[in-house]
Write a structure and sequence with these properties.
The complex is a heterodimer of chains A (about 375) and B (about 290). Chain A has about 375 residues and is α+β, with helices and mostly antiparallel strands. Chain A folds into two domains: about 230 residues, 3-Layer(aba) Sandwich (Rossmann fold), CATH 3.40.50; about 120 residues, OB fold (Dihydrolipoamide Acetyltransferase, E2P). Chain A contains eight helices and 20 strands. Chain A is elongated and about 75 Å long. Chain A starts with a strand and ends in a 9-residue tail after the last strand. Chain B has two domains: about 60 residues, no CATH class; about 210 residues, MetI-like (MetI-like fold), CATH 1.10.3720. Chain B is mainly alpha-helical and about 290 residues long. The longest helix of chain B is centred in the middle third of the chain and has 31 residues. Chain B is built from 13 helices and no strands. Bound molecules: adenosine-5'-triphosphate and magnesium ion (MG).
Chain lengths: ~375, ~290
């Protein structure tokens, strides 16, 4: 049984169902990230765990105790809000101690807990300041400190980094990850940033339209997306998706892909991704940019590198890599080349495709095949 | 032509500037003249006024009219001066303002931060209450006060003003709290604060500006009210405004204009004082830093 268990939980506002039947079991010490585009119901689910929103049907349990009807204060959770939600009239120390005070912890103990956490987060010198006198990053730390002093069973984060500038966001991301590794706390973290999800989590729930589309480790989600939505949403630049047809060649199932010049290329599936039994079927082939490279940049450990010649449409140098855009199956396809490869737009160039990383989707149901 | 510091305003030539300032000065005089007349005439003996020198400074300065208006002038049938009525007004206005402000804040808090069935209807009715003409409630209110045993008393007046005041104070606080980040309330809920603790520890400390606006508004309205005062008070519970009217209307002997002027200034002073004192605390930006800049 999980530490935090969401069993068949739903949420409706009137007749509108914003969260469909959801089942997630979170183990103690896990870092679960809820990720998805705006309006998909991430915050709603988080607020349901917090007790700020009621569960319409189903159940949420923490440590085996059902939380239906339990007040937020009595759930032993702490939450970090997107806007930080620091009490403007209290200084940093008072902000951090407020929750302890409300739970009847004596002053001496409160002070001790606050100073410990303040040391941990390096905000000891800010304890006497009001939130208005802090920078964005400092407010963010204080908000985390306020959650940490409570020593709760579960930490809930609702897009805590989205108000920081890009550089600070990366720093704080690392810091949160370190903190999690050090303290081993159980965290549910909401973000719409897929990179944040991939870097921070031990498991990810990708959400869309009130449904959990896929629940899995970052690697599972990245390598084997359950459907076209997950494939397109996770990863940047996003996975190339283009139509292909499964045929047989030398007794093996291969994908036929139309090229821009009217000819077609043949891509044999890797052994472990064999499409045997699907011959004659139209599919959507999904290949990530880093699996479409120049020949020398191809993954040496892969046993399924295939070479095709295709016309280069655009090159986009991005410092460490050069993104090369071509056409496959009538769609734009981006490959990731080493920065110093001499490739020019308009040329026909050999592309190395790592078929070990290729996934196939059903064009109708959009679900992954096999 | 190259001044860009003042690019926000239309530049004018010296000639039109002269016209503008002259006009402003005239209007200034026009508004201040009555005050001037009141002040100078309250500080001179009656004989000087009767001699026709309304506009001139006193040739003999005296505070006798003030003393008389305060403690000895004839108000209605008794020669008590305005003092007891001033006290009545204070006893009426302080509780009425305090209670209506606190209740307004509480209402605003409930209406914006707690969802309950029919909240928009409740607010709509409160709003409607703000705009019911005073005259319409006179008779029902008299009956109510009679039933409650508060007819003709200062607590009765407090009650009347409270009922009228809550609508406005609720409106002020509701609109203010609408901008107040709900995440703060949610954070406090998770921290374990209850309904009233959140109100007292989170909402109220950030309500300074709107409380000042509300207090100024309520104080001025209730202090200056004449209709309710005249309708619902007895001789011993009349507020200042009604007493001032009685002072001026007392038809025994000559009309002591200097005393009337002094009394009128006395009746106006508290509202002026509230503006001067409370206006200083009308600072914005108490919310800075609670949420992202
Ligand atoms: N009080 C409400 N009444 C009706 N619908 C609501 C209410 N609150 C949220 N919703 C709807 O529920 C859906 C999910 O909202 P939610 O806030 O969970 O989205 P989100 O995934 O957190 O998005 P974002 O990334 O923009 O924060 C949205 O379509 C929203 O319009
Ligand atoms: Mg959200």
């Amino acid at each position: 049984m999980g530490f935090l268990e969401i069993r068949n939980a739903t949420k409706s506002y009137g007749a509108v169902k914003v969260l469909h039947e959801t089942d997630i079991a979170v183990e103690e010490g896990e870092f679960l990230v809820l990720v998805g585009p705006s309006g998909c119901g991430k915050s709603t689910l988080l607020n349901m765990i917090a007790g700020l929103e009621e569960v319409t049907s189903g159940d949420i349990a923490i440590k085996g105790r059902s939380m239906n009807g339990v007040r937020p204060a009595d759930r032993n959770i702490a939450m970090v809000f997107q806007s930080y939600a620091l009490y403007p009239n209290m200084n940093v120390g008072q902000n951090m101690a407020f929750g302890l005070e409300m739970h009847g912890i004596p002053k001496a103990e409160r002070d001790k807990a606050v100073s410990q956490v303040a040391d941990l987060l390096q905000i000891s010198h800010l304890l006497d300041r009001k939130p208005g006198q802090l920078s964005g990053g400092q407010r963010q730390r204080v908000a985390m400190g306020r959650a940490l002093v409570r020593d709760p069973d579960v930490f809930l984060f609702d897009e805590p980094l989205s108000n920081l500038d890009a550089k600070l966001r990366v720093d704080m991301r690392t810091e949160i990850k370190k903190l999690h590794q050090k303290l081993g706390t159980t965290i549910v973290y909401v973000t719409h940033d897929q990179i944040e999800a991939l870097t921070l989590s031990t498991r990810i729930a990708v959400m869309f339209g009130g449904h959990v589309q896929q629940l899995g480790t970052p690697k599972e989600i990245y390598d084997n997306p359950a459907n076209i939505f997950v494939a397109g949403f996770m990863g940047s630049p996003s996975m190339n998706l283009f139509p292909a047809k499964v045929t047989t060649e030398n007794g093996e199932a291969v994908a036929k892909v139309a090229l821009a010049d009217g000819t077609s290329a043949t891509l044999p599936f890797a052994q472990e991704r064999s499409m045997a039994g699907h011959e004659g079927r139209d599919i959507i082939l999904g290949i990530r940019p880093e699996a479409i490279t120049d020949e020398d940049g191809a993954d040496r450990n892969s046993k399924a590198i295939h070479r095709i010649e295709a016309r280069v449409e655009v090159t986009e140098p991005a410092g460490s890599d050069t993104f090369v855009v071509s056409h496959l199956g009538g769609k734009e396809v981006t490959g990731r080349f080493r920065a110093d490869v001499d490739v020019r737009a308009g040329e026909t160039f050999p592309f190395a495709i790592n078929m070990e990383k290729a996934v196939a989707f059903d064009p109708e149901t959009e679900q992954r095949i096999g | 032509m190259a001044s860009n510091a003042s690019s926000q305003v239309v530049r004018t030539g010296a000639g039109s500037r002269f016209v503008i300032y002259t006009l402003l000065a005239i209007f200034c005089l026009y508004y201040l003249l009555p005050l001037y007349v009141m002040v100078v005439n309250s500080l001179k003996p009656l004989s000087e006024i009767q001699a026709g020198g309304m506009m001139s400074l006193p040739s003999e300065w005296t505070i006798a009219p003030w003393a008389s208006a305060w403690s000895t002038a004839q108000i209605g049938v008794a020669a008590t001066g305005l003092k007891p009525y001033f006290l009545n007004s204070i006893l009426m206005v302080v509780p009425a303002v305090a209670i209506s402000t606190v209740l307004g804040a509480l209402n605003g808090y409930v209406l914006t931060k707690w969802r309950f069935r029919g909240d928009t209807i409740v607010f709509g009715l409160l709003l409607f209450g703000c705009f019911i003409p005073f005259q319409m409630v006179l008779i029902p209110m008299a009956r109510m006060l009679g039933l409650m045993g508060l007819a003709g008393t200062v607590p009765g007046l407090v009650f009347v003003h409270l009922v009228y005041g809550i609508g406005f104070s609720t409106l002020y606080f509701r609109n203010y709290y609408q901008q107040f980040p709900t995440e703060l309330v949610r954070a406090a809920m998770i921290d374990g604060a209850g309904f009233f603790t959140i109100f007292r520890r989170i909402m109220l400390p950030s309500s300074g500006p709107i409380a000042v606006v509300c207090i100024i508004w309520q104080f001025t309205n209730i202090w200056n009210d004449f209709l309710f005062g005249a309708s619902f008070s007895d001789f011993d519970s009349q507020p200042m405004t009604v007493a001032l009217n009685n002072l001026v209307q007392s038809s025994t002997g000559v009309k002591e204009y200097n005393v009337h002027f002094a009394g009128a200034i006395m009746a106006a002073l508290p509202t002026l004082l509230v503006y001067v004192v409370a206006g200083r605390y009308f600072v914005r930006g108490l919310m800075a830093g609670s949420v992202k800049g």
